[in-house]
């Protein structure tokens, strides 16, 4: 069964193929990034979809719920501390939690693992940038599905300040 790339392409995201059932990218993934539906239609059946953060100009928060750690609760606490509501943005339910998509601010937002308990940041970075497994993919037998079909919101200013270097200009 072919992974349906339409949700990611309709959101203006740049994608590339991931091996079927996998979330790890094959070498050379950055040379396969596209926004062309015809190119994606030519990919083999069953491949997963990768979303390239730099080419898509997005920052993704990967909120994991596993091993006794809940990234959703961590983000909820961070939002409360910042006196900011839960982000109203494109959200994908994953095999172990959620991916929240945000438009990247001007400046460098690096990817990081374990930035906060249960939260990894996938971002444009300085070189290739990070990536997210996109909706329509299947990992560990579990589908990645859009749980909040919203426009991709700007990265909240309080979060941008925590994730970026001092040269960043945060724009709404």
Describe the structure.
This protein is α+β, with helices and mostly antiparallel strands and 172 residues long. It has one domain. Helices cover 19% and strands 30% of the residues. It contains 5 helices and 13 strands. The protein has helices at residues 6-10, 37-41, 53-56, 71-82, 157-163, and strands spanning 15-18, 48-52, 58-66, 69-70, 91-93, 97-103, 112-116, 119-122, 131-133, 138-139, 142-143, 145-148, 153-154. Strands 3, 4, 5, 6, 7, 8, 12 and 13 form an 8-stranded mixed beta sheet that branches. It has a 3-stranded antiparallel beta sheet with strand order 1-2-9. The longest helix is centred in the middle third of the chain and has 12 residues, at 71-82. The protein is globular.
In short, what is this structure?
The chain is of the alpha+beta class. It has helices at 6-10, 37-41, 53-56, 71-82, 157-163; strands spanning 15-18, 48-52, 58-66, 69-70, 91-93, 97-103, 112-116, 119-122, 131-133, 138-139, 142-143, 145-148, 153-154.
Question: What's the topology here?
Answer:
Blueprint (H helix, E strand, L loop, with lengths): L5 H5 L4 E4 L18 H5 L6 E5 H4 L1 E9 L2 E2 H12 L8 E3 L3 E7 L8 E5 L2 E4 L8 E3 L4 E2 L2 E2 L1 E4 L4 E2 L2 H7 L9
Parallel strand pairs: 6-13
Antiparallel strand pairs: 1-2, 2-9, 3-4, 3-6, 3-8, 5-6, 5-12, 7-8, 10-11
Order of helices and strands: HEHEHEEHEEEEEEEEEH
- Rg over CA atoms: 15 Å
Percent helix among the residues? 10-25%
| Proportion of strand residues | 25-35%
**How far from one another are the termini?**
39 Å
Largest sheet: 8 strands, mixed
Q: State the secondary-structure class.
A: alpha+beta
């Amino acid at each position: 069964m072919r992974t349906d790339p339409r949700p990611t392409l309709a959101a203006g995201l740049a994608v590339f193929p991931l091996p079927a059932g996998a979330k790890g990218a094959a070498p050379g993934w950055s040379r396969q990034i596209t926004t062309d539906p015809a190119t994606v239609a030519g990919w083999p059946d069953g491949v997963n979809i990768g979303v390239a953060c730099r080419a898509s100009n997005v920052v993704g928060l990967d909120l994991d719920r596993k091993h006794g750690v809940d990234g959703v609760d961590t983000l909820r606490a961070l939002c409360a501390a910042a006196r900011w509501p839960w982000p109203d943005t494109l959200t994908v339910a994953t095999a172990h939690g959620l991916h929240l998509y945000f438009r990247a601010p001007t400046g460098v937002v690096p990817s990081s693992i374990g930035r906060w308990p249960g939260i990894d940041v996938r971002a444009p970075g300085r070189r290739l940038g990070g990536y997210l497994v996109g909706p329509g993919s299947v990992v560990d037998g579990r589908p990645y599905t859009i749980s909040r079909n919203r426009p991709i919101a700007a990265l909240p200013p309080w979060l941008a300040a925590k994730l970026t270097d001092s040269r960043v200009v945060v724009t709404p």
